[in-house]
Structures are given as C-alpha cells and as structure tokens.
C-alpha cells in the first residue's frame, strides 16, 4: 500500500496531499480523474487542494525551515545518497505507473526516471557545490568571505510530459541546499510523482521539508502569491509560464520558468545520412513528440533536401501502440484534448498548403480503439508564416523546410522566437564551430538531436523558451536556491591597538 494513494472501488485510487510529513485526505469538492491515455481507464482521482490546505502546506514548510536550514551539509547529502538508491531500486515499478498514466513507452518512462536520478546523484555533491569564497587581507587585517545560505520555502510547478524527471530537477536540489519545498505536480499524471515523494520520505527527509499539493490554476496562483514563498520553479507551456513568472515576480519571488519551444535541426549535405535520419525520426516522434526538447523542425540545406523520402520511409516503420506493449515506438498523446489540438494543427497545415508527406490522423491501434493515438506525421514545403511552424505542436509531427545555404539556415533558426534547443548535423568541424558561435539558441547539439546537458552543467534554454536568469540543476540552480551573504571582518590581536577615527570610505 502506498501512503500517497488510497484505493477506491475497483482499481482507481485517490491521491492524498502531503502536509507537514502526513498524507492528508483533501476536503476539497473539486476532483479530476487520472486517465490512461491508451485505454481511457480511470486510474485515480486528484484533489484540487483548498486554500486552507495550500496555506497549511506552505506554513508547514516555513516551520520546518527553521531547523532544516541548520542541518549539517553531510546529513543533507546522506539523505540524497539514500534517495538515489531507493529510486534505482523502485524504478521499474514507478515506470509502469508512469507509462500507464502518461502514455510513453516503458523504456522512455525508465529514461524519464533515470534523467531525474542523475540530478539526485549530483545533489550528493552539495558539499562542494554550495561552497562560498574567501580572500584574506583585502585591506589591513581585513578578510572577506561569502556564504551561500538557503532562502526559505520554494515551490515547484511541473508539467505532464516528464512526471519523474522534472520534479527531480527541482525538489532534491532545493532541499539539499537547505530550503524547504512545496511541489505541485501536473494534475494529469501525478501518481508516479507521488511515488517519488514517498521515496524521499523513506530516505529521511524530515516532516515539513517536502510537501505536495495538487490542483490547477487556482492552486498555482495561491502558491505564487503566498507571502511565505521565496522562489518558484516552473516547467510547462509558454502561456502558463509567462503567467507564473509575472504573477510570482510581482509578489517578490525569485522565478525560473522553462517554457515552450520550436527546436530546429539543421542538416548539411555532408552529414552521415543514415545516422542523421535515425536521429531526426527518434527525436521528432519519441514520446509522441511531447518533449520541450523534441526536434520539431528539420532544416535541410542544399542537397540534403533530397532526404525527405528517407525520413518518410523510416517514420512509416514506427510502431504506434500502448506504451506497455512490446516494441512500441510511439504511444498516445496525454489526453483527448491534446489529440484534438494536434489534429487541428495538422489540418491547418494542409489548409495552408504544406505537403503532407505522411499522415498520422486516423491511425488505428487494434485493442486500443479509444486511445489518444496520432501516428508519425511529416510535412514538407512548410513556410515560416504557417500556423504549424509558428505554434508548438507538442505531438508526433515533423516539419521540413529546405534552404539553399548554411547562412540561410542559421538566419531562419535565429528568427524564430523560441530558443530552447537546436542541432546541427555535419562532418565539418568548421561548420560546427560557425554554428555554435552564430546560433542564438541556449542549447546546441552537434550531431545530437536533443542536447539536454547532464546535471554537472545547467539547462540553458533561452529567449522565448525561458524567463529568469538561472536554469534548472547544475551550478546555476545552486545560485537560484541560495542567497549570497558577504562578510567583511577584522580582528585585533591587541586591545592597545588604536587606529583612530576613520571618516573616509576606504579601509586601511
């Protein structure tokens, strides 16, 4: 029995809130079903926390902060060591839940967990990550040093597409820095997130240091405006991210918001053809395209424009089915609403004159007739004024644009307002160097389609894909979750020393 989940009639379960170390049955009147996107089976019910429950969670975090901030670094680190061991042990079980509620394949669900686990492993290095600086004798007998201290109660608001990885981007790093945390996972698929939170408690995180509430816009707004909250981390859509950034910022919070994307892959004719086509198809259609780092636009330069047929031939071979079925490449999108939106965008591309090379509408999956399936869809002849290019589709749709020169390709990518990630496929070191120098996108891959950095570095999306200066995980997130205090000190060895009255601004 999972403390965070309570059985209802049949197999459905109702989620609880975590407040002050206790799993609490919500008193709300507003609930939402967790639905398996491949079968429409109701897996659970999510409570939209009341105002009083949100306040209780934040206040519990505030009370816990008083002692947690003074917990030795070694003790915090050892909890993270235990947590990473528990995640490894329970990863297969969590992946099954994740696949059922989100739709992605079991292999992709395990990858979702593993990429979050890497951040937990990095959190175990907090002893060196949170070090300050020291310089002695900056003036006569004067030393200056800095302290990196926790800031207080932090909030994490996470999306449906990575219910394991993105929560693990947030609460382990915030907590290991000495803060306390209130997590608000996606209401569409919070069950796997709840299992990770359970493991965090088992690892030894004290009562109140980690709390979890559920809900929609009203819950988000309450967290962003709560006077006890000091910082908000967000990953999700551009519309919601902009709202969170503006609202929380107006209420004096630190905010990092990772938002939408339109990721381009530029392909030069000298690229390895087979490897490049494999990479583009995997990055475009994996996770049914529901990744903020998915490759959604291929920019084929010169003779590489002839590769559209290769992309189509390989995409046609991908298996569309439920995520738990063996050999599945493309699972369902998360909801009926998401499917309707993606289909409307495909329709708009056809209406605006793009060439539909491969049509994923109407795909049928035997045994899963009610699933939210869309097959791999490929457009060529796309223009930058089309709706399918201007909007983030967030589905298994790849757009192909052809240009004559490398410079045209760079200009095209730089003209797009988003800046999450981009890739270049080439065998030319000179071209790679030019690309990484001139491209105005925060994360660049060279012969890598999804250039998400490992946690030793930071996630560095830019422009329209990011609000706030500091990204998730790595060194930047330690800066985000701590405040720097500078101490300037002088000690006298002899009470008889008298420097006299000093009315000037400099130190002697």
State the shape: globular
How many strands, what sense, and barrel or not for the largest sheet?
7 strands, mixed
Total beta strands: 24
Uncertain residue ranges: none
InterPro entries: Ald_DH/histidinol_DH, Ald_DH_C, Ald_DH_CS_CYS, Ald_DH_N, Aldehyde_DH_dom, MeMal-semiAld_DH
Pfam families: Aldedh (PF00171)
Family: Belongs to the aldehyde dehydrogenase family.
EC number: 1.2.1.27
Description:
- It comes from Pseudomonas typographi.
- This is methylmalonate-semialdehyde dehydrogenase (CoA acylating).
- Its EC number is 1.2.1.27.
- Keywords: NAD, Oxidoreductase.
- This protein has 508 residues and is α/β, with parallel strands linked by helices.
- The chain has helices spanning 51-68, 73-102, 106-123, 126-129, 165-176, 191-202, 217-225, 238-250, 273-285, 308-315, 336-351, 387-390, 406-415, 429-438, 474-480, and strands at residues 5-7, 13-15, 17-19, 22-24, 31-35, 42-47, 134-139, 142-150, 153-157, 180-184, 210-212, 229-235, 254-258, 263-267, 295-301, 355-358, 377-380, 397-403, 418-419, 422-425, 444-446, 462-463, 466-467, 482-490.
- The strands form six sheets. Strands 16-17-18-15-14-20-21 form a seven-stranded mixed beta sheet, sandwiched between helices. Strands 11-10-9-12-13-23 form a six-stranded mixed beta sheet, sandwiched between helices. Strands 1-2-6-5 form a four-stranded mixed beta sheet, covered by helices on one side.
- The longest helix has 30 residues, at 73-102.
- It is globular.
- The mean pLDDT is 95.
């Amino acid at each position: 029995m999972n403390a965070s989940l309570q059985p209802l009639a049949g197999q459905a379960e109702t989620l609880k809130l975590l407040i002050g170390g206790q799993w609490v049955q919500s008193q709300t009147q507003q609930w939402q079903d967790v639905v398996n996107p491949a079968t429409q089976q109701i897996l659970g019910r999510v409570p939209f926390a009341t105002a009083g429950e949100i306040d209780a969670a934040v206040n519990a975090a505030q009370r816990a902060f008083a002692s947690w901030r003074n917990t030795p670094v070694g003790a915090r680190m050892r909890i993270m060591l235990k947590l990473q061991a528990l995640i490894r042990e329970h990863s297969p079980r969590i992946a099954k839940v994740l696949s059922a509620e989100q739709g992605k394949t079991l292999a992709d669900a395990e990858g979702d967990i593993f990429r979050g686990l890497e951040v937990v492993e990095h959190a175990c290095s907090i002893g060196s990550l949170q070090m300050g600086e020291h310089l002695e004798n900056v003036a006569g007998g004067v030393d200056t040093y800095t302290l990196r201290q926790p800031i207080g109660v932090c909030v994490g608001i996470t999306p449906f597409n990575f219910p394991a990885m993105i929560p693990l981007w947030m609460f382990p790093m915030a907590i290991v820095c000495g803060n306390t945390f209130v997590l608000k996972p996606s209401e569409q698929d919070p069950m796997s997130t709840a299992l990770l939170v359970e493991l965090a408690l088992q690892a030894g995180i004290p009562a109140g240091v980690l709390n979890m509430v559920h809900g929609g816009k009203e819950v988000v707004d309450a967290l962003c405006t709560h006077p006890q909250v000091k910082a908000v981390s967000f990953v999700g859509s551009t519309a919601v991210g902009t709202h969170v950034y503006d609202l929380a910022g107006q209420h004096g919070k630190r905010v990092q918001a990772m938002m939408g994307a339109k990721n381009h892959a530029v392909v030069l004719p000298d690229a390895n053809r087979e490897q490049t086509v494999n990479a583009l198809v995997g990055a475009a259609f994996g996770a049914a395209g529901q990744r903020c780092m998915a490759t959604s636009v291929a920019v084929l330069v010169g003779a590489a424009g002839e590769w559209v047929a290769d992309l189509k031939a390989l995409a046609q071979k991908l298996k569309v089915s439920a995520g738990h079925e063996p050999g599945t490449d493309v699972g369902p999108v998360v909801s009926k609403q998401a499917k309707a939106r993606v289909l409307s965008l495909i329709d708009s591309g056809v209406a605006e004159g793009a060439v539909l090379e491969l049509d994923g509408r109407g795909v049928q999956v035997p045994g899963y007739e009610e699933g939210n399936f869309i097959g791999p869809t490929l457009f060529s002849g796309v223009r930058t004024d089309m709706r399918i290019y201007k909007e983030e589709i967030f589905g298994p749709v790849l757009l192909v644009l052809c240009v004559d020169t490398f410079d045209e390709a760079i200009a095209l990518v730089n003209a797009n307002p988003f800046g999450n990630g981009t890739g270049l496929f080439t065998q030319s070191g000179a071209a790679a160097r030019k690309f990484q120098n001139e491209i105005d996108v925060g994360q660049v891959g060279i012969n890598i389609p999804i250039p998400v950095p490992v946690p030793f570095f930071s996630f560095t999306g830019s422009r329209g894909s990011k609000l706030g200066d500091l990204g998730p995980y790595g060194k930047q997130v330690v800066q985000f979750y701590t405040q720097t205090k500078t101490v300037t000190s002088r000690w006298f060895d002899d009470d008889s020393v008298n420097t006299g009255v000093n009315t000037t601004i400099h130190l002697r």
